[in-house]
Amino acid sequence: MMRTHYNASMRIALGSERLLDTTTLDGTTVGIVCNPASVDHDFRHIVDRLTMRAKTRVGAIFGPQHGFHSDVQENMIETGHASDAERKVPIYSLYSDTRKPTPEMLRGLDVLVIDLQDVGTRIYTYIYTMAYCLVAAREQGLKVIVCDRPNPIGGVAVEGPMLARGFESFVGLYPIPMRHGMTIGELARLFNDHFGIGADLDVVPMSGWQREMYHDTSGAPWVMPSPNMPTLDSAIVYPGTVLFEGTNVSEGRGTTRPFELIGAPWVMADRFAAALNRRNAPGVVFRPTVFEPTFHKHAKTSCGGCQLHVTDRQTFKPVLSAVLLTEAFLDAGPDAFGWREPPYEYEYEKLPFDILAGTDETRRQLERGMKAEAIAQSWEASVEEFQKVRTDFLLY
């Protein structure tokens, strides 16, 4: 795989850096939606930078799933509200008894600034935290500024099933494909205008970012956006392998390579990987491996399976690869493999796999024995329609 290494001429300017280079926030009390990844090129956190501004006051901090400090490991554990002892401001969790800021949380604010790192996948909840913030701000007549950040897996490729009506959840509020190919600022525009939220929204775009850039070719800083997204490699495979959260197969949580290591106790790794590699999936090699998760599914139990090694980012199709994997697990243990039972995230009574896929059709296709390549072809028409819709909201 060819890698382009960072050099000074490639440095982009993040939306937050461009915003804080202006006087836009002078004289305002700001609410900031952020987490540890909300840093600039010098790894200075946006809350620290706002606090240092003489003419700007931080009135409240809002944290997404996993918390403001991103210290909550389990993906479905809600976090409580707190107070920032150093800055003397409340920290409100938007993954708690509410997903949407309440009027009381927003009281006294002049503007809500959102600076979150998305990873380019429909089910990543930070984009819906943003959507709920837009709704709450519209209801309270509050301005929202979204600071744009790179889509770490690029802004060109779009792939996967479209969210179907009736499958809306906090891992999928709007009909977009699994891999959407948009930045968080572009999604803010799409949600606000196309899907009708109608908030007073400004998006501060980046400068220098190009759609074909992956995170490590953009020069942007990488800080884990969530506890199980440690590296860009994790993010590249995530649009597909996140589907295994909806099965009894380990998606690698509890290992140092979440979403890259996929396996289960009943699988013979060598035979399993060989069968996968015979399918010639584009841009990826399935290396046989055995691993033992330290926590989560199959904790302390040896799991056979594979690690996904992406050899060509331009041709790799993460969702197709995950459907191939699911097909392989069904073949390797038809009596052992299973779909996780509801509920998902405490509240959704549909099968978790269907909630994650955004439809029950992908599961039904697999159960009917349809091959992964044919399943992927069934997405193409809706992906093409989405490509047309998103054009009006692209910034780069």
Structure description:
With about 400 residues, the chain is α/β, with parallel strands linked by helices. It has two domains: about 10-220, Rossmann fold (3-Layer(aba) Sandwich); about 230-360, Aspartate Aminotransferase, domain 1. The protein is about 30% helix and about 15% strand. The protein is built from 13 helices and twelve strands. It has helices at about 15-20, 45-50, 105, 125-140, 185-195, 215-220, 230-240, 270-275, 320-330, 350-355, 360-365, 370-375, 380-390; strands at about 30-35, 55-65, 80-85, 90-95, 110-115, 145, 160, 175-180, 200-205, 260-265, 285-290, 305-310. The strands form three sheets. It has a seven-stranded mixed beta sheet. It has a three-stranded antiparallel beta sheet with strand order 10-12-11. The longest helix has 15 residues, at about 125-140. The radius of gyration is 21 Å and the shape is globular. It starts with 14 loop residues before the first helix and ends in a 6-residue tail after the last helix.
